[in-house]
Amino acid sequence: MAKTVFIKDTAITGKDRTRDFYGLFLGVLREKGLDTTIQLVRLADMGIYSAGIAVRVLPDNHLYTQVGESDIAGIVESIKTGQPYQPRLTKQASTQMRIVLRNCGVIDPEKIEDYIAHDGYHALARCLTELTPEQVIQEMKTSGLRGRGGAGFPTGMKWEFTRKSAGDQRYIICNGDEGDPGAYMDRSVLEGDPHSVIEGMAIGGYAIGASKGFFYIRAEYPLAIERIEKAIKQCHDNGLLGSNILGSQFSFDVEIRLGAGAFVCGEETALLASIEGKRGYPSPRPPFPSVKGLWGKPTCINNVETLANIPVILFKGGEWFSKIGTETSKGTKVFAVTGKVKRSGLVEVPMGTTIEDIVYGISGGAMSGKSVKAIQTGGPSGGVIPKDYFQTRVDYESLQKMGSIMGSGGMIVMDEDDCMIDIAKFYLGFCVDESCGKCAPCRIGGTQMLRLLEKISEGRGVPKDLEQLAMISRAMQKASLCGLGQTAPNPVLSTLNYYRAEYDAHVNDKKCPACKCSKLLSFLIRQDKCVKCGMCFKACPVGAISGNREKGYVIDQEKCIRCGQCFEVCKPAAVLRQ
Amino acid sequence: MAKLTKNDLHSLKAKYAASEKNWIKVGFSTCGIAAGAQKVYDVLCDEARKNNAEIEIKKCGCVGMCSAEPLVEVNVKGLPRVFYGKVDRETAIEIMEKHVCGNLLVNDRIYDVKVN
Amino acid sequence: MEKAALEQEVRQIADSWKGKDGNLIMVLHQIQNRYGYVPRNVSLVLSEILNVPLARIYEVITFYHFFRLTPPGKHTVSVCMGTACYLKGGPELLGELEHLLCVKPGESTKDGQFYLEVVRCLGCCGLAPVVKIGDKVYGGVKKKDISGIIAHYSKEAEAKAAA
To answer: Would residue B34 count as lying in a domain?
Structure first.
């Protein structure tokens, strides 16, 4: 392969010097007569951030960072010899590891041949011909895989419980009701690699002794539904679902059931009620679904990401899988890194990777000109983790210790413009909306807490409100029937814990430090900075700004609705927001 | 197709692994489609025909770089495998003319490089 | 529609699911696909066909956000309010749409052209903030883009396209 050199200025602030550096580098190559044999390419993104000018040479795979003009000659020389140029040589620190997403973006999800060509259904074949169901379960236990839906219950044990429950019929269910707003790992897997989930389900069905499986997918994901439908049909055509799969004695089939927009249906017992065609009301556990589940039969419910792990584990062995990750959390985790981050998208990393590596190393940190304030994991059931704690390694236990949870994998990045009370209010509002109303602690407690937060964000809060928030939270955690109510206070408790000062500012000083809560803001025109252009005057939707181009402008605080339009349009930043 | 057996799986795998054609993959997941993957796919197919390019244009799922959709991965023998991001009509034409037919990578449009 | 004709249509939809356990939600999905909402007279017919009390059907319809009891506008405008979209300006987009269409979420415009709704995460968080009109998803939308996008679907624009 001919040599290729990639160049990118990875600095986040300042002028992009990629083009200038490219010119210099090309000059040196010309001088040495190498510009026809070595290809020089400017990148739009390199996956490396805040490391000055970065240069990558392929196929040697040498990476240089903080490269200066004086280094060019040395690098060019090293390209000729193939030996790395030591002074600027770097190893890329944070790398992803793809197990769940192994085929996403690699295969054509609508072609079963493509999946088979990438080792697809080989694990199922191995299970059916070489392993007994007990051995499959043993392999899963060895792997140490824990449920990726949030709670992290060991998958092997879940399978064993279901297998050991007496019943003439057992079921396996794929929970594809990805309810966490701001997370879409499951959608991507269902869309990008549907067969791996089906294979995982078939293996699970074989292990627990189920002949029937159900996909429960959100109706908001039409493409995922379409791809799974196609994949199921292809499996029927090829004898990978139906009777006597791959010529064995094992028969298994799956059906799709759609969700209809209810967050609570991500909870196991509510999900079962919904598949049965009823309201998605949760019911008390025990009995657990593994004993008494769908239509009263032993049922195993696994999340999409969990199932996508299974074919790899059975193909490469539980032993192999257990070597990845930390002591208590094995394997990898997919995160949907979104919000105020430079490179938002899906990230799959081994358990034990630091939050810092994920947010800064892989995702590039904040958008330009801002700084990251915190992340939020676990959606409406999780909590925030401030920047000071980004050395935390992601696994089930350490995130829980931080007052958050692993959750299904949403990771929302927030910057200095985001108000923590506003965030808490957003999540709580979500839970209040989604509460099914069956039990009082969740139904009433949630609403009361939301009222208190609204009061605080509107500047009507009193110090006692904060105590009351904590008190209601405890009651909800202890007395709610299902996971939704038990975890709904988490966003409030964690923001209260880490950002008490921000709450105090709202309550005592009637100020919003992030300038987000509009009722607490006021806008003023600084006459010393005003250039009398009249933009604010034109932008104001309620006519609260008066004046003219000679005398300048003032804002009538009585009329002002604090929409911030004047602040946005003011070029010389003469509108003061406080 | 007839019902598969374990041996069929192995022979199918061998058959597909042997193919060494140049290819382009366009990400067709919800975010890719929302960002305009279909248009990019159509332009690439048109341009391939116009240029008589020996290339297979395939669809695939989401690679994960959602903010850079529509994403196009290009594999041409002798060149590094790269991901073009935020691909529009012009970039798609450039990819076909320069990269596929001219063996020259397109500047300022690559969002990731496959290292191994 | 005549009751007999309606009954036949509903029967056709329901038949493929008849006898299957827990079919009600799936049948309702197909009905909403067909009519855009679940009309009361359809529920009445369905109750007879599936032998399920009408109260049971309404119990399910009113529990799930996805099902509608009133006809939607011609174009459904969905504003995503997932966390990523919320942080990146979803509320401002919603405000602009409310202002432009003169409706609140859950309402249709007077001319029946648009139905405005707020949805929980369309799963395109990488493109936040996101607005969906019909089946088309618009990513990275700014407040000033809204009027242009909506104009595309207005009656005048459609009449022009037809001519």
So the answer is: yes
**Contact residues on chain B for C124, CB-CB shorter than 8 A:** 30-31, 34, 66
Closest CA to A125 of A197, A213, A19, A199: A199
Beta-carbon count within 10 A of A471 CB: 12
CB distance B67–C122 less than 8 Å? no
Supply the CATH number for residue B50's domain.
Answer: 3.40.30.10
A288 close to A297: Cβ distance less than 8 angstroms: no
**Which residue from A146, A247, A228 is spatially nearest to A189, judged by alpha carbons?**
A228
The separation between CA C1 and the C-alpha centre of its own chain, rounded to angstroms, equals: 22
Cα A347 → chain centroid: 8
Cβ pair B24, B56 in contact under 8 A: yes
B21-75 pLDDT, tens per residue? 899 999 999 889 989 999 999 999 999 999 988 899 999 998 888 889 899 999 9
| Cα distance between residue C21 and residue C69, in whole Å | 24
User: Residue A106: inside a domain, yes or no?
Assistant: no
Give the minimum alpha-carbon distance from C87 to chain A in angstroms, rounded to a whole number: 6
Question: Averaged over A34-44, what is the pLDDT?
Answer: 88
User: Does the pLDDT at position C1 exceed 70?
Assistant: no
Question: Which C residues 94-153 touch A at CB under 8 Å?
Answer: 119-126, 128, 135
Name the residue among A220, A339, A344 with its Cβ closest to that of C122: A220
Beta-sheet strand order (sheet of A372-377):
A345-350, A332-339, A410-415, A372-377, A383-386
Cβ contacts of residue B98 below 8 Å, gap of 6+? B104, B105, B106
- Chain B contacts in chain A segment 97-116 (CB below 8 A): 101, 103-110, 113-114, 116
pLDDT at residue B116 in the model: 66
Side chain identity at residue B75, one-letter code: N
Selected residues 324-343 of chain A with any CB under 8 Å from a CB in chain C: 336, 338-340
What average pLDDT does range A443-451 have in this prediction? 96
Is residue C10 within 8 Å of C45, Cβ to Cβ?
Answer: yes
Give the span between the Cα atoms of C15 and C30, in whole angstroms. Answer: 11
Residue B1 has pLDDT above 70, yes or no: no
- Mean pLDDT within A46-69: 87
What's the token pair of residue A403?
Answer: 């007052």
The yes-or-no verdict on residue A47 having pLDDT over 90 is: no
Give the per-residue pLDDT at C69: 92
**Whole-angstrom Cα distance, residue A327 to residue A334?**
18
Nearest 5 degrees, angle CA C123-CA A199-CA B63?
A: 35
Residue A246: which of B4, B30, B61 has the nearest Cβ?
A: B4
Q: Quote the pLDDT of residue B18.
A: 65
Out of C87, C123, C135, name the one closest to residue A187 (CB): C123
ipTM of the complex: 0.92
Match domain C75-162 to its CATH number in 3.30.540.10, 3.30.70.2190, 3.40.30.10, 3.40.50.300.
3.40.30.10
Distances (CA, A) of A182 to A232, A340, A342, A346: 28, 12, 16, 11
| Same domain flag for A52 and A137 | no
Query: Nearest CA of chain C to the CA of B36: how many Å?
Result: 10
- Name the residue of chain B whose CA is nearest to A1's CA: B78
